[in-house]
Amino acid sequence: MTDGSAWRQPDGVARQGAPGARSTSTTGTGQSPWWSDALGDPWRDPDAPSAVVIRPAAAPPPLEPDPTITAPGERRSLGMVFLVAVVTALLAGALGGTLGYVFATKGGAPGQTVLGAAGNGTPASLAVRPPDSLAGVASRVLPSVVTIKVGTDSGYSLGSGFIASSDGYVITNDHVVEGEKGQATVTFSDSTTVDAKVVGEDQESDVAVLKLSKSGLQPVQFGDSDQVAVGDPVLAIGSPLALANTVTSGIVSSLNRTIEADEPGGPTRYYSAIQTDAAINHGNSGGPLVDAGGRVIGMNSVIRSMASDADEAGNIGLAFAIPINQAKRIAQDIINNGKARRTVIGAELSNSYQNPNGGVEVTVVPSGGPAANAGIKPGDVLTRINNVPLEEPADLIALVRMYAPGQAVNVQYQRDGGPHTVQVTLAADSN
Q: Which are the catalytic amino acids?
């Protein structure tokens, strides 16, 4: 044990104050911070070896040059960088498209709900409709159907019509153009509009003809309304409630329905109509009723409704069209002669006659007329024309007007309780 008066630092340097001592203080004395006063411990054995080895920190390894960093003065080509970016984008797009297709066609990821059945077939936009399908028929006929707008005292009248000739004749209802005061216009299915002029009209038949200031048009194909049968499929085309290019479908639900339409202050219209359940509303008037082949067999004219107000009437599945054989004949008369011939049988009928078995009673038979020439007399009860039953006078008028002047019809009648049949050649009204 010693009092430490002669101890030495491990490096052999005498303690400060001793002869030859070296200061390593960090406080300006030169004394080492690792030793401080540790070696001044009075209880330390001065002969015990002591050393504190301080190794210098290893130098960091040299950094490898970054290949993306261009050395000063060195220029890199941007073309390669751009090419790599483009190729990467293309590959990513191709991968995304492939995955999208797989998910769309295979139903997506496992466990996910898939809507719709697999294999939906050819998209509708790529499908070709057969010409005899409803869509095929509609696409053929629509370019020949027009919307008619006519100025009147109260505003304007709007209805439908169809092109009857390539040089611009259009057939429509008389009640569509009735009361014309302003310019008449016609709008085609492609929304183009041209001016029109009313050529002529027959009020009692409810047929009118317009002439357009345009030629090279596509006319409709006419059918034969005498060959129509109940149950035949039909399309009604027009502008109901001003909704242009509207197509509705149905069937022929009856034939030879007598239409006797009275209008306040106007004429009484008569015709033996084709009945259909195709949806027809205000604005369909004058438009075509076409068969499954796209041939016009009638002109839509009247609807039956439960409403008491005609302005509020709407479709209830009972609509009526003028047979096209009759409408076409009248239109041809108007074009050729400026007016239509009215077909008559040459007999006046009783409005009070009633019989549970039907029939209409003849009261007057003017001499020289069709009925007189066929031997029909006052008092005879006419029961059928071409096998169509007669129930009231309007039936006879409507049926007779279906036929052209000069056409012969078979008339069945009762005289003195016995049945008779005679052929009558109809004539044109001389008035």
A: 175, 206, 285
